[in-house]
Amino acid sequence: MANTQKVMTLEDTAKLIAKVHANASGGARFEYDTAKGEYGNIAAYMAAHTDGKVYGVKFPKYTYSNTPTGVKTRDNANLTVEISTNDKAGRDDYTALPAFRVWDVNATVDDDGVPHVTAIDGLDSRFKRDGSNGDVYVMTCPGYYKLESSGTHNEFLYSDTQYDGYTPLPGVLLPDGSKRPCLLFAKYAASLDSQQRPLSISGVEIDREFGSQNRAIDYALKKGKGYAGLCAGDALYVQLMLMLKYATKNSDVLGGFWNYNNQTAVTTAETNAKRVVIAASAAANYDIGSTINVGTDKERNNAANYSAARARTILSKTSIDSTHTALNIDGDPITTTTACFVSTMPWKTGATDKLLGIDGRPAAANPARQPVRLQGIELFNGIYETEADLIVNAVKDSDDAGRVELYRVFDTAKASKTSTSSYTKIGEYPARTKATDNSWRYAEDFSLSNGVLIPTGIGANSTTGLCDGTYANPIASQGLRQVRRFGGLGSGDACGAFAVILSNGLAYRWWTVGGRLSALGRTKA
Question: What is the C-alpha separation between 386 and 148, in angstroms, rounded?
Answer without folding.
Answer: 29
